[in-house]
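lol ok so funny story. i was supposed to be doing the assay writeup but got distracted and ended up predicting the structure for this chain instead. priorities right. anyway since i did it might as well share w the group, maybe its usefull for someone
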Amino acid sequence: MLQLGKQAPDFQLRNQDGEIIRLRDLRGKKVVIFAFPKAKSINCTRQACAFRDEFPRIDTENAVILGVGVDSLEALREWRQNHNLPYDLLQDADHRMLEKWGAWGVFDVKNLLGFPPVKRSYWIVDENGALIDMHIGVTDKQSVQLALQTLQNAANSHPIAS
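and the output, tada:
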C-alpha cells in the first residue's frame, strides 16, 4: 500500500513510441502521474487536455507529467497526436503498476461498455522519489486542480535558496 512521505514504487513502462520510461530515471524532478480508464473517451480526453493546458505551469514547477492507461501503444500514440499532448502516455497493459499504485479494480456498468477497471487517479512524486500526494478515484477536473495545488504548496514550502 502506498503511503505519503514514503518512496514511490518504481515502474518501467513503455510510452506511446515504445520507449521504456522508468520512474527512477526522473529523479531530480517532480513527477505528476495520472491514471485514466480509456484513451479517446470523453472524460479521459478532458483530463488529458486539462493537463496539457496546464503543462506550462506544471513545467515551471520542475515537474513532468505522465499519463498511464492500459490502451495499446497505437491508441496512445494517436490520442497524444490528435490532442497535442506534450507529455508521455504510458502503457500498463498487464496493469501491474496500476494495481500496485491502487488504481485498478472498479467493476461497474462501464466495464460492460468496454472500459477497463481503472480508477481515475493521480499521484505526485517529489524530486527524491517520495510520494507527496495521491488521490484515487477523482474526476477529470479534480485531478488537475488538486495536482496544481500540491505543486504550488510544495514550491511555497521549499523556497529557492539565493
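Strands lie at 12-15, 20-22, 30-35, 63-69, 88-91, 121-125, 131-136. The two ends are 38 Å apart (CA to CA).
back to the writeup now i swear
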